[in-house]
Write a structure and sequence with these properties.
87 residues; 8% helix; 4 strands
Length: 87
């Protein structure tokens, strides 16, 4: 991995439907067995904390990838883990 960026974003539950409008982020691509794509916990980056974290990977141009994990554990908000990296 050459470069990487880790971001956690929280928003209201209605925001998730807008976020997944892209065909490459369809709900069906998110599975529990892909959590490893987000890497280990480090400081505020804690993908190991949620009991459930369905995760998907989107291939981008030029050998770049976006890994996305969704924590729906709080009924008032959704926390999205975004990990972008180059290969």
């Amino acid at each position: 991995m050459d470069d990487a960026l880790f971001v956690k974003v929280a928003f209201g539950t209605q925001g998730w439907a807008t976020f997944v409008l892209s065909p490459s982020l369809a709900e069906a691509y998110f599975t529990e067995d892909k959590r490893y794509l987000l890497g280990p916990d480090e400081g505020r980056w804690d993908p190991g904390r949620p009991a459930s974290l369905p995760t998907a990977q989107v291939a981008l141009p030029n050998g770049e990838y976006l890994n996305v994990g969704v924590d729906r554990g709080d009924p008032a908000r959704i926390v999205v883990y975004l990990m972008w990296h180059q290969t």
